[in-house]
Amino acid sequence: MPHLPRGSSRQPVRRAVRALSALAAAALFAAACDKSPQVEQVAGETPPRPAPTPAAEIIATPPPEAPGLALDLSAISPEAARDSAILPDETAPAAAISDAAEPAGGGELLTLRVPPNMPAAITGFWDGKVENVIYVIHKGWNSAIFDIHLFEDLLLPTTSDVRFNNNRKLDETLFRWKVVEPGREWNFYISQESVLQFDMRGHVFVRGNEAVVEGEITNRSPLEWPHGEAQGLMCIRTRHNPDFWDQPGERILYYRTDGTTLTVARAIQSAERDTFPFFATPLHTNGRDLLPRISKVNKTADRRVTVESNPGSSLGGNRLDTMCCIHANVDLAAKPGETVYFQTVVRFEDLATTSTTTTGP
Questions:
Q1: ω into residue 311 within 30 of 0, thus cis?
Q2: Which terminus of the chain has a lower count of CB atoms within 10 Å, N or C?
Q3: Residue 231 to residue 206: CA distance in whole angstroms
Q4: How many whole angstroms separate alpha carbon 76 and alpha carbon 250?
Q5: What total of structural domains would you count in the chain?
């Protein structure tokens, strides 16, 4: 039977472990991003829009609940995927993505593309063409581009001191993509033996205004992956969109289990906020219970990107404009031989047309 991590314990010792885990995640963010990209940002901000919505209204408008986990990976052949190269999406333009271009998939709002199908202005970033990234192009937002790094790294126990690109345990060069439906769905697969021992497979697909990642990972190592410490860093970057830059963290939102929200600017200490661009917060610490959900609102408060993972472990990100990412990290607790099923939903919302119920400030 698949292993599904249980709910979080409220015991103080467990909370201390999770707090240490958050610090470890923040340190890994720093190690992975210790150099600033020298590539110029993509030119052209979006046209001016109406005056911003008051912050209280942003905080009082939660995103809808994410649908439950429902995996169907029967169509994915690990043997075939293991031997596949990254297969180009033949419908993608070779040099650039036109704002007026009709995306593949019958006029879908969102289009998925892997790095070989993206222009050099995007993949020229220091990590813009790593194998474990897939790009989301939003036709309704002037072809705005967002990148999903799955996983940016795996924080799993190991007895090896060897590290791969950017000091990571995950060997991204082993990641393989196979197109299922151009622009709408891609299968992925990775099997790793060095440093970490695991098999992972799944798919990324478009569902309305959502990009959904679903998959499974099997622990083939002799070590247990402990609950609260074993994490997959699910990273969504908004750096190609100046409208979403937010170094203070005033428009990055955590969601409490009681229905209220908390900005990252308020959640982290002022000294840390001013000197350290990375942030990482366990779901349960210091009496604070958070949902595995994080959002970022644009400068004019009419667009929102929300990321939610199941099973969740922690929230985090990097507030620098050259990264501009948010994380809803995945809990990968598993004993040797066990499999964890996971889902991450990236939702793109126009707040002026979002129909939700206000739950309070």
A1: yes
A2: N
A3: 25
A4: 41
A5: 1
Instruction: Note the Cα 101 to chain centre separation in Å.
Output: 26
Evaluate whether residue 246 is within a structural domain. Answer: yes
What one-character DSSP code corresponds to residue 183? Answer: T
Helices (H) and strands (E) in the chain, counts: 6, 19
By the 8 A CB rule, do 199 and 78 touch? Answer: yes
| Pairwise CA distance, residues 105 & 206, whole Å | 9
Cβ–Cβ < 8 Å for 162, 195: yes
Q: How far apart are the first and last CA of the chain?
A: 42
Residue among 174, 169, 164 at smallest CA distance from 132: 174
CATH of the domain at 201: 2.70.98
Predicted TM-score (pTM) of the model is: 0.74
Q: What are the backbone angles phi and psi of residue 240, rounded to the nearest 5°?
A: -80, 5
The answer to whether 67 touches 345, Cβ cutoff 8 Å, is yes
**How far, in Å, are 39, 52, 84, 196 from residue 133 at the CA level?**
18, 32, 16, 20
8 A C-beta contact, residue 62 and residue 356 = yes
Domain annotation covers residue 164: yes
Q: Sign (positive/negative) of CA torsion 148, 283, 219, 5? A: negative
Residue 84 lies in a domain: yes
Reduced to 3 states (helix: H, G, I; strand: E, B; else coil), residue 91 is: coil
Domain assignment present for 31: no
Instruction: Return phi, psi of residue 256, to 5°.
Output: -80, 160
Residue that is written with structure tokens 């002026």 in the block: 352
The count of other CB atoms within 10 Å of the CB of residue 235 is: 27
Question: How far is CA 65 from each of CA 21, 199, 254, 292, rounded to the nearest angstrom?
Answer: 27, 30, 14, 11
Q: Containing domain of residue 229, as a range?
A: 52-353
CA–CA gap between residue 128 and residue 144 (Å, rounded): 15
pLDDT per position as a tens digit, 335-348: 999 999 999 999 99
For 240-262, the pLDDT digits (tens) are 999 999 988 999 999 999 999 99
